[in-house]
# Entry
Amino acid sequence: MIKGVRCLLSLCAGALFLTVGCAGGEKREKAEDTVELKLGESYAIEGTEMTLQIEEAYETEELSPADPSGYFYYYEDKEGYHYYVVSAKLINPARIAVKPADFEAVASKGRKKYETKVVLEASSGAMFLREDEETVGEEPTLHLLVLVEDGKDAPDTVELYYNNGLAEKKEDELWDRGVRIDLSYF
# Structure
């Protein structure tokens, strides 16, 4: 009887170990198809005539529009944190409407994930667009804004996700495309 209980406990412990071990492994991919890019490289956004041109990566205490005028909002300095920013130009010859909600971004270093936000800056440099505000007839700057705790390592990878033609993402589906930007050499 005791031998049977030990065997049963061993089986339960093994099953628990396997369940916990597997549950901890978060699925890395959030897109069906992901490509790698580096600083200065371009990527054609599927289903549009737009091109994403990766321009720079830098750290800053706050992020403001390049040429603000009047009232504008910005990402202010947060005590104990700074921002790691990857900036890209959205070359948009067909003048397709685009908004921040068309994209999602994730930043990581190994298994550590960072709070990340997609920010679109109007081509005039005067303002950032709100999440569902769209720009038509512009070539905005796309900023991938990563919040990093002071004294901690910056991310080594930032991933940008979107759907073909900038279609809306369904809740239970992966994004169609992903762009992985390797930051380890910046």
User: Anything to note?
Assistant: DSSP finds one helix and nine strands in the chain. Confidence is low (pLDDT under 50) at residues 3-27. The first strand starts at residue 31 and ends at 37. Helices lie at 2-23.
